[in-house]
Specification:
ten-stranded antiparallel beta barrel, 2 domains, Lipocalin, single chain, alpha+beta, about 25% helix, 10 strands
Length: about 210
């Protein structure tokens, strides 16, 4: 669902907000029975209190709920970071003596709950590696496997297109930076600092293209 635009995500939020607002503005609405009180919901949607309308209304309500859920799920899966990103070495300004991430893949196992980040690259000594991280963009440290230079990583969501990250080894910060996906969601820029093979702090700006 990578083709779903930011506009679709906005429309999903607006649709949910509009439906909840309509329910709450009706005097027959109560949070306790909002889902199961079909006569009350039928009255809101049709203005008719006749119980005979409950059968047709049950179908209409169910369809409305499915539509909103589907749109919401699609919006979650349409996260701008989702997908595979390939390093554009020609445009990038990588610090001397540092490694590089050649291909980065974000896999959303369940929308908003868990993301897997897979990286293929080379370390500062030119040795290839494949690392994996799994968790949420909530700022909490979670383990990294496959990377000889780090053992934990955290991501913090700044906004829809921006993430901050911190990388640690044995409890010490060894790298940090910011990931920004462009408005058209076709490229992303990673500005970071890390340590070179001599332990010196260096800055890198890496550009990636979506595959």
């Amino acid at each position: 669902m990578d083709h779903i635009t930011r506009g679709a995500r906005v429309r999903a939020r607006e649709a949910i907000a509009s439906m909840l607002s309509e329910f709450r503005s009706d005097p027959s609405f109560s949070p306790r029975c909002a889902v199961w009180d079909l006569p009350a919901i039928g009255n809101i949607l049709t203005g008719n209190q006749n119980p005979g309308f409950i059968g047709p209304m049950r179908t209409k309500i169910f369809g409305l709920i499915l539509a909103v859920c589907f749109l919401s799920a699609g919006a979650c899966f349409a996260d701008p970071h989702k997908g595979t990103w390939k390093l554009n070495a020609a445009k990038s300004q990588l610090g001397k003596g540092t490694g590089r991430n050649n291909v980065v893949n974000y896999e959303f196992e369940f929308p908003g709950l868990r993301t897997k980040v897979l990286i293929d690259g080379v370390d500062a000594h030119g040795h290839a590696f494949h690392s994996a991280w799994e968790g949420r963009f909530d700022g909490k440290e979670r383990p990294v496997t496959g990377d000889p230079n780090s053992d934990s990583r955290s991501y913090t969501k700044v906004n829809e297109n921006t993430l901050d990250f911190t990388i640690k080894k044995a409890g010490h910060v060894v790298a940090a930076g910011r990931i920004v996906v462009a408005a058209d969601e076709k490229t992303r820029t990673v500005t970071s600092w890390s340590r070179d093979s001599q332990g010196k702090k260096v800055k890198s700006i890496a550009f990636y293209d979506r595959e």
